[in-house]
Design a protein that fits this description.
Keywords: Carbohydrate metabolism, Glycosidase, Hydrolase, Polysaccharide degradation, Signal, Xylan degradation. Helix content is about 40%, strand content about 15%. The chain is α/β, with parallel strands linked by helices and about 300 residues long. It has an 8-stranded parallel barrel, surrounded by 6 helices. α11 links the parallel β8 and β9. The chain starts with a helix and ends with a helix. It binds (3S,4R)-3-hydroxy-2-oxopiperidin-4-yl beta-D-xylopyranoside.
Length: about 300
């Protein structure tokens, strides 16, 4: 096939992009989005600070724009994200007791997943709950502080009941190298969840790569080790800093690794043209600022 989405579909996968609602009025942007991708992730519109910036009042306007754009064109939607320490409104981080935080977390999950019930193929239920570095420890967040380690499994149980047909993912960055302490910690958590029957269906590897943190040589083995636990793997926020042949080769390696593991079910790039990347001034995506296909695009299409 001649587009990313159609080629991925031939392999039983999806190929998605992070999308921002405020770009949907730009015809060059939607032309490429509609032509190339068969899945979308709202880049910011489903985050807690956008949907429930004050307690009990829910704003689905921006996220609905993206979901409607996608579903009316037969694209899948990834939900991103329900429980995360960042882009979290102050009213949540200020809640004093475990009961308050638990109630707020569960009601947020129920409300958001209820609103989109049946429309989301996979949800990032919990995002970035582990620390960087060699400790393998949980990140300090209001959820961790007030509820303790059990907040993650509680979130997944609530999520399963809220939309039983959505795949429930744990999503994080720097879990791409199988020998990294953070990767081991997430691996151990998923293994524990599977052994105790806590509902989890997928692990999201964000896969933000740059020269400090290149695509690891054991990336495919890492995908394979998660898959062997009985979960799908999705590459959820792929971007690779660089240009030209080097960038193209890195992108090809990622696609090849995913396709080699049957449980690696889809890839999402974290934006469409370089100038809309969250890496401001960077060029980590598949299209340049004029929406021309870069060598990285050609490498991905050839690998799919
Ligand atoms: C980023 C968005 O791309 C930016 O627009 C926003 O300002 C900050 O968040 N990990 C995640 C994503 O899970 O939600 C982040 O997205 C990038 C890192």
């Amino acid at each position: 096939a001649t587009t990313l989405g159609a080629s991925a579909a031939e392999k039983g996968r999806y190929f998605g992009a992070a999308v921002a609602a405020n770009h949907l009025g730009e015809s060059a942007y939607t032309t490429v989005l509609n032509r190339e991708f068969n899945s979308v992730t709202p880049e910011n519109e489903m985050k807690w600070e956008t949907i429930q910036s004050s307690r009990g009042s829910f704003d689905y306007g921006p996220a609905d724009q993206i979901v409607n754009h996608a579903t009316s064109r037969g694209m899948k939607v990834r939900g991103h994200t329900l429980v995360w320490h960042s882009q979290l409104p102050g009213w949540v981080s200020g809640l004093p007791t475990a009961t308050d935080v638990r109630n707020a977390m569960n009601s947020h999950i129920n409300n958001v997943m209820g609103h989109y019930k049946g429309k989301i193929h996979s949800w990032d239920v919990v995002n970035e709950a582990f620390e960087d570095g060699s400790s393998g420890a949980r990140r300090n967040s209001v959820f961790q502080q007030r509820i303790g380690n059990s907040f993650i499994e509680e979130a997944f149980k609530t999520a399963r009941a809220a939309d039983p047909n959505a795949k429930l993912c744990y999503n994080d960055y720097n879990i791409d190298d199988m020998n990294h302490a953070k990767t081991r910690a997430v691996y151990n958590m998923v293994r524990d969840f599977k052994s105790r029957g806590i509902p989890i269906d997928c692990v999201g590897l964000q896969s933000h790569f740059n020269s400090q943190s290149p695509v690891p040589s054991n990336y495919q083995q890492n995908i394979q080790q998660f898959a062997a636990l009985g979960v799908d793997v999705q590459i959820t926020e792929l971007d690779i800093e660089g240009s030209g042949t080097a960038q193209a080769n890195s992108y090809r390696n990622v696609v090849t690794a995913c396709l080699a593991v049957s449980r690696c079910t889809g890839i999402t790039v974290w934006g469409i043209p370089d100038h809309y990347s969250w890496r401001s001034g960077g060029t980590p995506l598949l299209f340049d600022r004029n929406y021309n296909k870069k060598p990285a695009y050609d490498a991905v299409l050839a690998a799919l």
